[in-house]
């Protein structure tokens, strides 16, 4: 089981408690599609992803970004058993969606950068460490049911 | 220049080739960033780093601190330095790194020439495992985001990520 320090727990609850999911979700997903364009392979039916402006304005991307971030909240609420929390989602991503698990890390990196841009100086090295540790556990849990 | 732009646009549109996730490009022309970056992106990158030069110690120290906090394995390379937050070692070492990246950004097409001495240093003396370069690159992106906020938009982020990946790949070229 993952050991969390008090600082790490507080940091995660605080960041997600103050976050506007409907802003951050779309921002993170659209950023991922712009910075790592090959991730667009999973979104063939999303319409216009032709350039950065199109991606950032695309309503399907925005909607999906919100879905993903609200999904992350489940881990925030169950920090002591993220593995079990995401077992079904992991199977879904592996067997039905067939998403390369490396993409989880790419999206996590983009989410980190979006949060850093929103929080500025408050996103200290220690806060970043806690945030990335949390995301690393999420990424690992989502990749666990790939066989 | 026309061919370069075509190549970049084709890459981003067709996404036909997925770069290795273990980053270091082995083909030297893609490693220079020459084919990966448009003229606009190169200007954007140079502009951003130009602003970092006067605060190189602060920015550099922050990048290193973020890296060593988030990825503790990277601390193993700094047994000879005082790496506590605010330490003068962190600031002077960070400054060197930021200035090298900034200098190179002024003429990205000449990257292979500009970085030749650093290539030798990293390959034969420092021998930092190149997997760590992308950890530092990520922390540089986070630092830029924290300082620039919304100005570090997805287009700037993409350009900067490509530049830093190319920089790291060139740095690793003499390893073997």
Automatic annotation (TrEMBL), chain A:
GO molecular function, one term: oxygen carrier activity
Domain Globin: from-to ranges: 3-147
Keyword RNA-binding: no
InterPro entries registered for this protein in UniProt: Globin, Globin-like_sf, Globin/Proto, Hemoglobin_b, Hemoglobin_oxygen_transport
KW Metal-binding (keyword) present: yes
Keywords: Heme, Iron, Metal-binding, Oxygen transport, Transport
GO biological process: hydrogen peroxide catabolic process
Pfam families: Globin (PF00042)
Origin: domain of life: Eukaryota
Cellular component, GO annotation: blood microparticle; haptoglobin-hemoglobin complex; hemoglobin complex
Family per record: Belongs to the globin family.
Name of the featured protein: Hemoglobin subunit epsilon 1
Native species: Hucho hucho (huchen)
TrEMBL record, chain B:
Keyword Transferase recorded: no
Gene3D superfamilies: Globins
PROSITE patterns for this protein: GLOBIN
Keyword Calcium carried by entry: no
InterPro entries, alphabetized: Globin, Globin-like_sf, Globin/Proto, Hemoglobin_a-typ, Hemoglobin_oxygen_transport
Pfam families referenced in this protein's UniProt entry, alphabetically: Globin (PF00042)
GO CC terms: blood microparticle; haptoglobin-hemoglobin complex; hemoglobin complex
Domain Globin span(s) in chain numbering: 36-176
A GO biological-process term: hydrogen peroxide catabolic process
UniProt entry keywords in alphabetical sequence: Heme, Iron, Metal-binding, Oxygen transport, Transport
Database matches in CDD domains: Hb-alpha-like
Gene Ontology molecular function, alphabetical: haptoglobin binding; heme binding; metal ion binding; organic acid binding; oxygen binding; oxygen carrier activity; peroxidase activity
Family designation: Belongs to the globin family.
The name this protein goes by in its record: Hemoglobin alpha embryonic-4
Organism: Hucho hucho (huchen)
